[in-house]
């Protein structure tokens, strides 16, 4: 049996049966699920764009073609621009995400590893896997006027400095090593010199990092030449527009 509704919908004279009630219940629950799927798809697209942009910036510098970023992400140009209206917005998102990721890794390693130097070794190798040094070198100086980017970068540098301080305090890191030594080594090992194929050199990166890290162990067996680069020196040493 069907019945007619009264009130605002009565003028529609829509018969309401048990089946139509069930259909309405299905639709009412399906809509949020559909919206959730759309949101999930949009989030995945955004994450793919950010990951692709990070790799493209390492390869081409801050002026990496947006078409190339969309191609690497497997999305259309319209999708990229729907998420990021201009290059600055995309660089901002990538820099904040990369800094947050490395900050979390640095703090997690210091909390989880048996000593601070083991934590330093873990962080350096993870950063190399993500080409963190190369990434920040090519974007050095970008968006320095953005307070959120500055905060994310400064938070990462503080976490890295705390890790170095802890490694020196426990007596395993030589006292004359500085954060500039670490940042420059990661940048140089993460970006092969012009004329060298990065894919062929990737398999040697971790070996060379171990050689570098062994040289940081205390007690030191040599006297280092000159002072360590400071954080103020780094922007002057990196060319943010240089690609590979």
From TrEMBL:
<keyword id="KW-0238">DNA-binding</keyword>
<dbReference type="GO" id="GO:0000976">
    <property type="term" value="F:transcription cis-regulatory region binding"/>
</dbReference>
<dbReference type="InterPro" id="IPR036271">
    <property type="entry name" value="Tet_transcr_reg_TetR-rel_C_sf"/>
</dbReference>
<dbReference type="Pfam" id="PF21597">
    <property type="entry name" value="TetR_C_43"/>
</dbReference>
<dbReference type="InterPro" id="IPR049445">
    <property type="entry name" value="TetR_SbtR-like_C"/>
</dbReference>
<feature type="domain" description="HTH tetR-type">
    <location>
        <begin position="43"/>
        <end position="102"/>
    </location>
</feature>
<dbReference type="InterPro" id="IPR050109">
    <property type="entry name" value="HTH-type_TetR-like_transc_reg"/>
</dbReference>
<protein>
    <submittedName>
        <fullName>TetR/AcrR family transcriptional regulator</fullName>
    </submittedName>
</protein>
<dbReference type="Pfam" id="PF00440">
    <property type="entry name" value="TetR_N"/>
</dbReference>
<dbReference type="InterPro" id="IPR009057">
    <property type="entry name" value="Homeodomain-like_sf"/>
</dbReference>
<dbReference type="InterPro" id="IPR001647">
    <property type="entry name" value="HTH_TetR"/>
</dbReference>
<keyword id="KW-0805">Transcription regulation</keyword>
<keyword id="KW-0804">Transcription</keyword>
<dbReference type="GO" id="GO:0003700">
    <property type="term" value="F:DNA-binding transcription factor activity"/>
</dbReference>
<feature type="DNA-binding region" description="H-T-H motif">
    <location>
        <begin position="65"/>
        <end position="84"/>
    </location>
</feature>
